[in-house]
């Protein structure tokens, strides 16, 4: 419960900063309920005695606005940067913040979701544990798309609007193929 409240507060602060970075009202993401639509997922990656046969989590981008991730000291999380996989080394007491596809879309590509994966097998001889909190909306029937403030003649909308439930259904039924969900909604 305490973790839930602390993560909510951190999520709210991050959203304010991200809104300021975009030049939109700092309460905008909160107003759209993105601090309330939280899902907590615990991952437990078993140690595999044949490491070359295991992965962890295949390459993907997260669908929501952002993800706050706590990883243990095992490591294995990697992000794609300029077509190369870069290790996100565990730092004691640090959290990993991941920008999701929905933020990429609403920011009209102001922020870009990050491709990431977990590669445990090759490196480690013990299980790995992580806790992710995904931030998304609680209003599935609402329409989402680029913020109108970020669309102009000079910077046209790069994505269409869509109903959130359709969007998330697409995410849950597609393979983890590394492709951002934002690609489906490009104009
Ligand atoms: O276990 C991790 O470090 C990452 C998990 C993840 O990427 C996810 O749940 O979307
Ligand atoms: Fe993820």
From TrEMBL:
Which Gene Ontology molecular function entries are recorded, alphabetically?
metal ion binding
Extract the InterPro entries matched here.
IPNS-like_FE2OG_OXY, IPNS-like_sf, Oxoglu/Fe-dep_dioxygenase_dom, Plant_2OG-oxidoreductases
Q: Which domain of life is it from?
A: Eukaryota
Please give the Gene3D superfamilies that the UniProt record associates with this protein. B-lactam Antibiotic, Isopenicillin N Synthase, Chain
Task: List residues of the Fe2OG dioxygenase domain.
Answer: 33-138
* Alphabetically ordered keywords of this record: Iron, Metal-binding
- Put simply, this protein is called Fe2OG dioxygenase domain-containing protein
Q: What is the lineage of its organism?
A: Eukaryota, Viridiplantae, Streptophyta, Embryophyta, Tracheophyta
